[in-house]
Design a protein that fits this description.
The structure is a homodimer of 427-residue chains. The first copy, chain A, is of the alpha/beta class and 427 residues long. In chain A, 42% of the residues lie in helices and 13% in strands. Chain A contains 14 helices and 13 strands. At the A-B interface, helix 5, helix 6, helix 10 and helix 11 of A face helix 5, helix 6, helix 10 and helix 11 of B.
Amino acid sequence: MRYLDMTKEQLEAEYELQKKNWQAIKDQNLKLDMSRGKPEKGQLDLSLDMLCVLKNDVDCQNRDGFDTRNYGLPTGIPELKEIFAEILGVEKDEILTGGNSSLNMMYNIIADGMLLGFAESEKPWCRYDKIKFLCPAPGYDRHFSICQHLGIEMIPVPMLETGPDMNLIEKLAGEDETIKGIWCVPKYSNPTGITFSDETVRRFAAMKTKAPDFKIFWDNAYLIHDLYDEADSLLNLLDEAKKCGTQDRVFEFCSTSKVTLAGGGVCFVASSKANIERLAKQLSMEGLGYDKVNQLRHYRFFRDKEGVYAIMKKHAAILRPKFEAVIREFEAGMGDAGIAHWHTPHGGYFISLDVMENTAKRTWELAHEAGVTLTNVGATFPYGKDPKNENLRIAPSNVKLEDVGTIAKYVCVCAKLAALEKLLQKA
Amino acid sequence: MRYLDMTKEQLEAEYELQKKNWQAIKDQNLKLDMSRGKPEKGQLDLSLDMLCVLKNDVDCQNRDGFDTRNYGLPTGIPELKEIFAEILGVEKDEILTGGNSSLNMMYNIIADGMLLGFAESEKPWCRYDKIKFLCPAPGYDRHFSICQHLGIEMIPVPMLETGPDMNLIEKLAGEDETIKGIWCVPKYSNPTGITFSDETVRRFAAMKTKAPDFKIFWDNAYLIHDLYDEADSLLNLLDEAKKCGTQDRVFEFCSTSKVTLAGGGVCFVASSKANIERLAKQLSMEGLGYDKVNQLRHYRFFRDKEGVYAIMKKHAAILRPKFEAVIREFEAGMGDAGIAHWHTPHGGYFISLDVMENTAKRTWELAHEAGVTLTNVGATFPYGKDPKNENLRIAPSNVKLEDVGTIAKYVCVCAKLAALEKLLQKA
């Protein structure tokens, strides 16, 4: 029965029941953590063969005989770039290899924008009193941290089932010259799990922006992180942008952090040929290139695109039952109460749970008291503020399968108890 | 006989001789390159055992059982930090591990200064119309590139036998609030090969600066890169600075780029505890930490400080005969002519050759025409301009030992021919 349809007496009875359920969890003195989207050990072990794939000096030469142990090839070894150019659906001169953190590459590009501006910029972004970024929310907390770190004002944009609210984005970006960029996780969005619709992608490519140097930070972190054979499909933004002549506004990112090693992967940035050329020049001023031995290690381990997809299937086999356990428990535990909704993602790393308005923080507290750590409420919003206090990010990857369902069940109890407290206050 | 003491007839005869020598070199259609300070293959092979030192999942755990393949430990695994803290002579909380490029870490810190300022800054450096760096010259071209890239005005400071001209540095930094930093390669300086005297280091620690946020970028790239058992000794700047309360002005850097792999090493930054804490926080906003698998690979390969020094002895055994061949040929070829001088370094990667004023470019051209590529003249000076047109950077590491002496001999011929052309113009 839906809580909203209950009488005061029914609510009170249900409150007593859930309070008892919650106390029973608490009495177990658990210590469970579902706060971070880290891969589990079994996923890291999928790349064990990569560790020693380069054994000697000859192994360290790339296909052209270049010794990856020495200086040179600052944009990355071509054979690995080719694999990821194919996966991203871009040309060989539209991609560049970075270090072990795509987030760091995003930061670098924004920092370059602040310090130097882009080709189309009137002036470096740091020469404005204030610049702004559009922030589809809930979103990835580390994107928002970058803005906050650099003093870039964040304008939240609601996330819909089709992606961020494009009407609002077109309006805002079309009017305000100081809006310089937007963060997107277009496939299996962090945390809502949705994939942007074709129309959303086309509108990103076609939209007019007041700022000539408006940039889309297209963090395609989960591009190949499908849980099922039937994957969500995402339109190629760079292709669409080329049709509109807006390819210079696109910076697309991906990495092997959740393919091989979370701390020891390789990242890539794709953009227009002109942007990649400019970026390569800038990066060559800012350091001595990235670790090409690790690039070659990845290439030898993957061999080709199919090798990458083969590993992703193994990741899916580990992650899928965890996601399904969460969804199953949510449906069993909260399907009837009508106090929460969630999207069932087909990939990525997160399930986004919207509990009853104004009860997310209380749900988090109740879970915490009962020994279950969830991602901080608000983390998924600019400035850490969830305006409706309703969103919880569920990160099942680094929890043991046998615990995932249990935690999800406990989250239901906490969400229900928090809702009942609120409803009884009003009743 | 010194060229300056020769009669016109003697100069003409010598010119004919050197011209013939030069032509004989040219006729060989050589293609020799001594332009870059890259390690040779034999040096890279010294770390072959590092490639496969981590073989399985258990190997990937650090001493505390942390899985280096996953996210976490953003300032680096402690066991490797400890080794390099000991080598640098700093405390464990005065060091932080970076990625594969110390140059990139230097850039990051300056970029952070531009965008955010330092703890003592009145405002971020980018909020000034212009800031300036002192640039001891000749120096490392990539330091100067960073300044040029960021629009930081470079003020050249002459290099003396004891280090940069401290009288000038104290005067300039003491007067001008917009002078925010200085570049130093204090040991086996790039390219002059000298090591800063104790007095120079003490004056760096003690000097008054007009800018409260003046920073010393102490690029200790060759800290352990001795060619002989009897090494140059360098005073510990951070220690000296602590005595003066100026430890927050010091950022010291080193890396394993020329210990293990030039493209796949690990870098370190040392500074005051307060600076390291602040930097760690900033870096945590700017990325997801550096490759800890590679850090652990280094640790397991080195085992301890002695392991690092043992490898450096093997590097010295490869490099020493090359340096000695250059010096031997310079002495034989130019000792009498009195047209050039050079420092005989006890470590590092370079020999700095000062030819007769206004003949470095011509020497370079003559060498180039004869098939020998040297580092571009001016590269070692701010804005690529060697005001006296006299400095050539000799980089023998990546040349085969049997070619090093030959190239040095040819350089002598070119330097003499260029000098003779100039002297005959005047005669």
